[in-house]
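**User:** Here is a favour to ask of a fellow structure person. Please take any protein you like and set down a full record of it. No explanation is needed for now; the record alone will do.

**Assistant:**
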Amino acid sequence: MTSTEAAARDLQDRAALWSTGEVRASEVVSAACDALVAGLDSPGLRILAACTRAEADYDVREALPGALEELGLTFYPVGSDAGKEAAVRALARRMLVGELSCREFAFWIHQGHGHDLALTERLAELDDEYGTLEYGDRTEAQIDAEVTAEARRLAIHP
């Protein structure tokens, strides 16, 4: 993956995470800055990257849809089901690069979606299994392996 592709993926992921309230608007602005440095460019991206931290909470809501569209990326409206699924996939990628432990990832997904999102039902079950380690017949390493497999499955989706 080229640096521009990686920057576009990171911007897309942070935008999805922002749309579900998982990250602050300032993280989207940081990703926009990183995208410019990596070689991506559009008028909307420049506007997004120019937001200050103080402005981000207000201006990202307006600037993000156009910036993503200009780059051929997808904007997920706040609270949308598609945005939730994109955010889950972004969290899976974060786990796979070591930003979250397996247990943190499963917990975060379970807390955010419970057993209601079909895409993440197995992760919610695995989070429950972490809670019963001392009573069950599985080891933490076995559960971690399943969480990692689920994260890989989620992360490969376009």
Remarks:
- The chain has two domains: 3-70, 81-155.
- The CA atoms of residues 26 and 53 lie 5 Å apart.
- The chain has a mean pLDDT of 92.
- The helical segments are 3-19, 25-38, 43-49, 53-70, 81-96, 102-113, 121-130, 140-155.
